[in-house]
Amino acid sequence: MAVPARTCGASRPDPARTALRWPSRGSRLGPGARRPAAGPPRPLALLLPPLLLLPLLAAPGASAYSFPQQHTVQHWARRLEQEIDGVMRIFGGVQQLREIYKDNRNLFEVQENEPQKLVEKVAGDIESLLDRKVQALKRLADAAENFQKAHRWQDNIKEEDIVYYDAKADAELDDPESEDVERGSKASTLRLDFVEDSNFKNKVNYSYTAVQIPTDIYKGSTVILNELNWTEALENVFMENRRQDPTLLWQVFGSATGVTRYYPATPWRAPKKIDLYDVRRRPWYIQGASSPKDMVIIVDVSGSVSGLTLKLMKTSVCEMLDTLSDDDYVNVASFNEKAQPVSCFTHLVQANVRNKKVFKEAVQGMVAKGTTGYKAGFEYAFDQLQNSNITRANCNKMIMMFTDGGEDRVQDVFEKYNWPNRTVRVFTFSVGQHNYDVTPLQWMACTNKGYYFEIPSIGAIRINTQEYLDVLGRPMVLAGKEAKQVQWTNVYEDALGLGMVVTGTLPVFNLTQDGPGEKKNQLILGVMGIDVALNDIKRLTPNYTLGANGYVFAIDLNGYVLLHPNLKPQTTNFREPVTLDFLDAELEDENKEEIRRSMIDGNKGHKQIRTLVKSLDERYIDEVTRNYTWVPIRSTNYSLGLVLPPYSTFYLQANLSDQILQVKYFEFLLPSSFESEGHVFIAPREYCKDLNASDNNTEFLKNFIELMEKVTPDSKQCNNFLLHNLILDTGITQQLVERVWRDQDLNTYSLLAVFAATDGGITRVFPNKAAEDWTENPEPFNASFYRRSLDNHGYVFRPPQQDALLRPLELENDTVGILVSTAVELSLGGRTLRPAVVGVKLDLEAWAEKFKVLASNRTHQDQPQKCGPNSHCEMDCEVNNEDLLCVLIDDGGFLVLSNQNHQWDQVGRFFSEVDANLMLALYNNSFYTRKESYDYQAACAPLPPGNLGAAPRGIFVPTIADFLNLAWWTSAAAWSLFQQLLYGLIYHSWFQADPAEAEGNPEVRESSCVMKQTQYYFGSVNASYNAIIDCGNCSRLFHAQRLINTNLLFVVAEKPLCSQCEAGRLLQKETHSDGPEQCELVQRPRYRRGPHICFDYNATEDTSDCGRGASFPPSLGVLVSLQLLLLLGLPPRPQPQVHATPL
Question: Which segments show compositional bias classed as Low complexity (predicted)?
């Protein structure tokens, strides 16, 4: 039935709506259905010249002014399909390029990627690389233990007796407010010269080691000076290691005293604010210094805990959490009369970055009230540790209690839960200034193999929340050689600028004895570490033989990726490891969960799966076939995987032995040939060692040509595989110009350019002037159009990318184009591969006009006839564009073409931004499916500073009563408070953020965050479909039709004339997010395995050293200075205005 013309609010006959509400199943035409043979399709030129005119079949008409019938829209769709196919056949040159490859068959060989052999070879190479580092580690650890054993302790050692290079000396000399400059350092500090070293991305000196000492540790103390004295001997071992293995990077000894000695020497990269680096808090040190931990932190929040004491506890808990790694499990609870978890976590959870963030935020909400009930707190903690129905570390078990003091020893609780075996260590922390008897707290720790600490002020927090690691290290030391096993860390950011690294760690034990017949020492001296840059591991993997969509990846026992093409953190915090799970690096599904589990278990395997992959520009989703193959890397906790699409089973290897042909093809790389042969972009690959890299492709090509004039493609300093393939593809694409492109008139078919890109690294764009507007990545493997074309059959349309927040496209000089590309598939001797992609760039405006003509009722090149009251025809996209909306939308939901002139500048936008009502209807009718995922590697602006943050934002100011109280002056607080105030004056930004730094410092401006990504892709409906957007008098009819052999959806719809039908808008833009609900995720934790070794018990352990207070002896000068500082006061400083908006 015909649908009459409408006006806003006018009613329509119900039968018309009913007839079009559901699609007619009899009229559907699936993508695999046969169509009547119409001979070879020919393109319809913009001006419809008679010789090129397609046979336009007259669409069956209807009564006056009706919405197009389904078969009419199908007819228009066929014309569009034929036009696209005709242009691509003539200009794409797929068939011609196949013939060119076959004609040059003698110039290349077809090689096979054998996944199992490949992955085993790479795993073996990585194992060999890491094994060399292991041998160096063992030499260092053995030497360190012997040096310390031979060292004689000196009580009277002085600063001037020690000569070393202080890595922070240069920065401190440049800072007139530096503490060492102020008081004058007595140590004999070396001044060194440095040379730039590309391997370290830094200036280094290979003749010396460097020493870094944390800011809050006094360099002149007897302990530190003795440490510097005996570790100096490590210098020769470091240098000998490098002589044996010149590829070694940073070699580091992290001492339990906080001293870091590393080789080669380089100046410390001091931050603008106070340098809080302490090696004992680095992920690699924590992992090497103790076995995994199950920790329950209980915090006393009774009424006596208030003000500064409560703030100290909150900060202490946050600092304690920072001593945990992903191998550890933790929960935090507060207690008074009752105990309850501070967060939504009701059991032990993995101490990963996101879970620790939940704890840190929850801790800030603790409020002091009620009375102290140690029994409630400890019973809760023991119950947590006895819960065996959850995933946990199953190694060291401990309870950390923070309190302001109390008299109850809760001996009955310990007798019930922990004695006589004492499998749970208890550490107690007395926080704040008070006059309580601390004997009960000391007793709790000493009778449960733990330790007692005092935290009188903020200056004692960092030291006393990390020294428990010394206690946990006792069983390791007593285990001796059995515990001397190298462990490899998660990925993390190197503090000295090396980039992302993994570190091999080996504990260093104290082998001394207090006297003849005495028990041997049970202290850990520190951890030895050697860095391996991820880039060095990547170099062992196949670079270009796997194709654009093949790759190698590796994961650890936590499922975190060590290698993966999607491991690209936008910003890194050197204090935290880079923990990207394999299931977050890719789009998660059941098959990948199974693969991940098998890899963590150290198994070999192979599996072909259908899975979803995200495009390189993160705008599209493709359903693809992938082959996964994996093996363990022996002697490590890593497992290696290889991913190959079926079309990458084979690849081409050029064999250009004919030097005359090499020279001939090379000439087509010269800019002098571009005018006739088209512009050539070459992939910026490492073709030769002496080739200078450049981000400017023109400059890179110039550097390449200059080098090739000096060396041959067979030179030993060059990668012969890359060079031969590049030169071969240069010649092959030139033949495509000669056979196809050069004799065609692009303007006749409204084309801005034609192009070909190859696996060999060539992108040829014709004509030469089109290169001025070519914005695609010159590396085909990093170009989204190239990778998507390989994964999709047919023609892949890609409109120019637009952001809703940016200004519309500028349609001037006909430079805006739509890319259409398709893969070239070869079949050579039964072996199938896709070595190239070809395509065209459509002129947007011209093809928008052509689109209207193709979706019209024209039967010849005559003028269009407008439907009116006295004519009998259906509306079409050309004549009735005031009433009818016709669009082409790609598989990601982005607008490609429209019959509405005012929408041309919106091409490339997500269609919901153009017509939210219609896009929602397409989604609801299953034309599109939505995929949501989270990007855990994004960078965002930081949140404004607040008073509830974990970092210190203020200091305790004593009252007059405190000044009059002699006990207060003689307590430990005096020196600690002076220390805080001194740091506050020197490093004022420790307490208050500096607006200038907040604006100018990238480290301040960006921080890691989570972004939610939403992509759309074609759903289950892939045929013709009629429907109605039901909205009363403002309802809209629409018809949608998939275009075969393309990634396009053709939609014809009535234009909206009423605004009251506006429905919810689908969002595609990336948005800031907190990620999935952590409280729900911990209920179904991902599979993981802890380290294979655990040292949490040794029968010979001496637990008599179990606690002490914090003592800072004050002096008269200090007290006077303190009073003056307090009287003078600190001027208030304005807070910066930093907004938390995604970058």
Answer: 23-37
Domain that holds residue 583: 541-648
DSSP codes of every residue in 970-1028 = HSTHHHHHHHHHHHHHHTGGGTS--HHHHHH-HHHH-EEEEEEEEEEEE-S--S-EEEE
**1112: nearest Cα among 964, 1001, 1005, 971:** 971
**What is the tally of structural domains in the chain?**
5
Strand stretches in 195-328, DSSP E: 195-197, 202-204, 210-212, 251-255, 260-263, 293-300
Same domain? 718 vs 603: no
Same domain? 523 vs 563: no
pLDDT at 822 over 60: yes
Q: Are 1038 and 1016 within one domain?
A: yes
Same domain, 379 and 395: yes
For 589-608, letters b (16+ CB in 10 Å) and e give eeebeebbebbbebeeeeee
DSSP-derived pairing of the beta strands 349-350 and 329-335: antiparallel
- 23-67 residue pLDDT tens: 332 333 333 333 333 333 434 443 333 323 333 333 333 345 689
CATH number, position 589: 3.30.450.20
Quote the DSSP letter at residue 34. Answer: -
How many Cβ atoms from other residues are within 10 Å of residue 358's Cβ? 19
- Please report the pLDDT score of residue 574 as a whole number: 61
pLDDT at 932 over 50: yes
Q: Is the pLDDT of residue 4 over 80?
A: no
Statement to judge: residues 821 and 898 lie in one domain: no
Q: Do 905 and 1042 reside in the same domain of the chain?
A: yes
Q: Is residue 1116 part of a domain?
A: no
644 and 682 housed in the same domain: no
Which is nearest to 348 in space by CA: 293, 426, 401?
A: 293
The torsion of the CA quartet 73, 76, 77, 81, rounded to 10 degrees, works out to 180
Residue 52 belongs to some domain of the structure: no
Q: Are residues 763 and 734 in contact, defined by beta-carbon separation less than 8 angstroms? A: no
Residue 985 CA neighbour count, 13 Å, CB half: 17
CA distance 265 to 167: 8
Give the torsion sign (CA, 595, 597, 600, 605).
negative
**Within this chain, do residues 334 and 223 fall inside the same structural domain, yes or no?**
no
pLDDT in tens, 574-610: 667 888 999 999 999 999 999 999 999 999 999 999 9
Is 100 domain-assigned? yes
**67 lies in some domain:** no
